[in-house]
Specification:
The chain is α/β, with parallel strands linked by helices and 423 residues long. It has 18 helices and eleven strands. It has helices at residues 21-25, 27-34, 49-55, 88-95, 117-132, 148-159, 165-173, 190-200, 241-264, 270-274, 277-291, 298-312, 321-325, 328-345, 352-365, 376-384, 388-399, 407-418; strands at 12-17, 39-43, 61-66, 71-76, 79-83, 102-105, 137-141, 174-182, 208-210, 215-219, 235-236. The longest helix is centred in the middle third of the chain and has 24 residues, at 241-264. The chain binds nicotinamide-adenine-dinucleotide and D-Mannitol-1-phosphate.
Length: 423
């Protein structure tokens, strides 16, 4: 057994919550590439498994950039420590360290729902920092949610005692940074571990495979400094909204369309779904409906779409539609309903393809492989519904009660799907 070797361990400057594939392919990669000697202490979000596997190889892993033409491997030594998120002592120690200036998070969209443990954990860490007098910190959300910094700030403040010292301290010293993150990173498979063995000779139980493309745009302040992420290509802007919309309304919305239509058509991966001419046409229609609402010129959107066609078509990246299809109740608002609302606000008709995604989702929720705790009640209602109109009403009242006027056009799409059309 030859594990990936460690030659350096940097002092911890960044804490991270949610030790999934994406963190290791994105924020960790930017931090290592920044080259300023910042290390990360990473904590698992729910299961301790990722920390256990990584700790057994001293937190070193291989990042494979998988382009259409081939693979290239990078040895990742930027994780200085990995911990089970349940290790509250380690969590408090790291966050109370004045040398740690940033806390990043990848806890999925569902991690921001009321009742999720993530905001409570952030508050717990901030309490330890405040008690230690370690000074302000930047908390950077890296999940696919619009205005993710504000969402996290609201969730954390909602848990702090009103009028307490900690509440006042968070308001004045803690910066919640919003960020748009992009790098398609599927869950690692056994075949990926085997590919790493062939490529490097290392027995890596926790490699991560990602596309060559990467983007990170951030808005907010860093009261205790930050790694030189800009040296690795990250951009710092005043207004994150246009960048979030470009990404969520084109890439992520396209992914959701391919997931729900693609699974119904028997496809397994994004590349397979997008190679299906009927789905490719549906995707182009969705993009034409959503692009009208983006605050970018035609050339910029054309360029983003050209890149997406090629990124989605990279068949060497096996991005499973089932992974993307999880938690639609948390994803479809930012991906489909926000741009749909924007269309209506601009006096346009609802997009046929936009409604088609909702229809395909309703069908998915009636199937056997639903992983979406936030849709539990809706699944019941859909089970009891006997007509397309009832299904459409249930979907809209669960997801977008302000849009129930669209019940009839959505019912048409649902009925069309029942007759075997793409909707
Ligand atoms: N994978 C990608 O291509 C990609 C790209 C851009 C953004 N993201 C963002 O990163 C998130 C994670 O993606 P991933 O590929 O790392 O997934 P993953 O399944 O590999 O990891 C998910 C991580 O989130 C944690 N988590 C899940 N639910 C949680 C909860 N309720 N509270 C706290 N932690 C929780 C898990 O424990 C795990 O550490 C996505 O949901 C998305 O918001 C992913
Ligand atoms: O990661 P999720 O579950 O939010 O969504 C699935 C994909 O749409 C998403 O991971 C994209 O691959 C990613 O956002 C690309 O940057």
């Amino acid at each position: 057994m030859i594990s990936p070797p460690r030659s350096v361990r940097h002092p911890v400057r960044v804490a991270h919550l949610g030790l999934g594939a994406f963190h290791r392919a994105h924020q960790a990669w930017y931090t290592q590439l920044a080259g300023d000697g910042s290390g990360i202490a990473a904590f698992t979000g729910r299961s301790a498994e990722a920390a256990r596997v990584l700790a057994a190889q001293d937190a070193v892993y291989t990042l494979v950039e998988r382009g259409a033409e081939g693979d290239s491997a990078t040895l990742m030594e930027v994780l200085s420590e990995v911990h089970d998120g349940a290790d509250t002592e380690a969590w408090r120690r790291v966050l109370a360290d004045p040398e740690v200036g940033v806390l990043t998070l990848t806890v999925t969209e569902a991690g921001y729902r009321p009742g999720s443990s993530a905001p409570a954990r952030v508050l717990d860490g901030l309490l330890a920092r405040h008690a230690a007098g370690a000074g302000g910190i930047a908390v950077v959300s890296c999940d696919n949610l619009p205005d993710n910094g504000r969402v996290l700030r609201d969730a954390v403040l909602a848990l702090a005692d009103p009028g307490s010292d900690i509440e006042a301290w968070i308001r004045s010293e803690v910066s919640f940074v919003s960020s748009m993150v992009d790098r398609i990173t599927p869950a690692t498979t056994d075949a990926d571990r085997e590919a790493v063995r062939r490529l490097t000779g290392w027995d890596d139980a926790a490699p991560v495979v990602t596309e060559p493309f990467a983007e990170w745009v951030l808005a907010g302040s860093f009261p205790a400094g930050r790694p030189a992420w800009d040296a690795a290509g990250a951009r710092f802007v005043d207004d994150i909204a246009p960048y979030e919309r470009r990404k969520l309304w084109l890439l992520n919305a396209g992914h959701s369309l391919l997931a729900y239509h693609g699974l119904a058509a028997g496809h397994v991966t994004v590349a397979q779904a997008v190679a299906d001419p009927a789905l490719a046409e549906e995707l182009e229609e969705l993009w034409s409906e959503q692009r009208t609402e983006l605050p970018f010129d035609t050339a910029t959107v054309n360029e983003a779409l050209a890149a997406l066609r090629s990124r989605f078509g990279n068949a060497r990246i096996e991005h499973r539609l089932a992974q993307i299809a999880t938690d639609g109740s948390q994803k479809l608002g930012p991906r489909i309903l926000d741009p749909l609302r924007s269309r209506l606000g601009s006096g346009r008709d609802p997009g046929r393809s936009q409604l088609g995604v909702l229809a395909a989702w309703a069908e998915h929720l009636a199937g056997p492989d639903v992983r979406d705790a936030g849709a539990a009640e809706l699944v019941e209602r859909l089970r009891d519904a006997t007509t397309a109109r009832e299904r459409a009403g249930a979907v809209l009242s669960a997801l977008a009660p302000d849009l129930t006027d669209l019940t009839d056009p959505l019912a048409e799409r649902i009925a069309a799907r029942q007759q075997g059309a793409l909707a």
